[in-house]
Specification:
Elements: E1 20-25, E2 30-38, E3 48-55, E4 63-70, E5 76-84
Antiparallel strand pairs: 1-2, 2-5, 3-4
Length: 85
């Protein structure tokens, strides 16, 4: 049997850093563009985990299981538009 426990990781995907707000007053109200980043710590949390096998010279041709982690996006930009009237 092969037992493995995932490492703990930061859940910074849920909260956004404040980012930058661009305000523009118009004739009928105000518009706000917001640009921010999710996962601002850039922690490489795995999205996909799989088992791969490799052979080592010291293992005499035996296949050794290795857990590979795949991270798709280390950080994610976020854009929002608000119109107040």
């Amino acid at each position: 049997t092969f037992k493995y426990m995932f490492m703990s990781h930061y859940a910074t995907e849920v909260c956004k850093c404040p980012g930058f707000n661009f305000h523009k007053k118009t004739k009928h109200g105000e518009r706000i563009w917001n640009v921010s980043i999710m996962n601002a710590y850039n922690s490489l949390n795995p999205n996909h985990v799989f088992i791969d096998y490799y052979t080592d010279e010291q293992s005499e041709g035996k296949k050794i299981p290795v857990i590979q982690k795949v991270t798709l996006l280390p950080f994610l930009p976020s854009f929002s538009y608000t119109y107040k009237f």
